[in-house]
Amino acid sequence: MDKILINNFIRAKEVRVISETGEQLGVMNIFQAIDLAKSKSLDLIQVTEKVEPPVCRIGNYGKYLYQQQKKEKKMTKPKGGDLKEIRLTFNISPHDMEVRAKQAKKFLDDGDKVKINMSLRGREKAMGGFATEKVKLFLGNLNSLIPIKTERELKREPRGFTMIVSKQ
After folding, report:
1. Backbone angles phi, psi at 55, to 5 degrees
2. Domains held by the chain: number
3. For 17-54, what is each residue's pLDDT tens digit?
4. Pick from 24, 54, 76: which residue ends a domain?
5. What does pTM read for this prediction?
6. What are the strands of the beta sheet with 160-167, ordered from one edge?
7. Are 88 and 70 part of one and the same domain?
8. Where are the alpha helices (DSSP H) in the chain?
């Protein structure tokens, strides 16, 4: 629906009218319907032209437009599918790891994928085995909360390790 027709722009001779409270007022002449809407200081808004006679509603045009925009926005907004990141550090405490696992579970429940990033600095880079053990421990915590599948295996990068997981 590109253009919403109101008041004198409605081309039909007769329309089915719905009041501002949602009550059916029946089929009436277009001029009677416009007069009725004007008497309540509201607009006659054409809701659909697909039926014969077209359906029109009495209401505030600005409010109606706002509601339509909200509906469209809600329909076009995709839910989930983003890539969220959880950062782990070399000396992360067990409690912090649990908190991050719970946060990752929330992301996975929303349908997002989670990138686990273990950043290493300085001499930590030489202890890659210890860092991979920390990531595996995190994955164990996460797997106990929610079943996961690996999208991308644990990969060594210049600043540490990364991997991507999603909900099974």
Report:
1. -90, 130
2. 2
3. 999 888 998 899 999 999 999 999 999 999 888 888 89
4. 76
5. 0.55
6. 83-88, 113-119, 160-167, 148-157
7. no
8. 30-39, 61-76, 94-109, 128-145
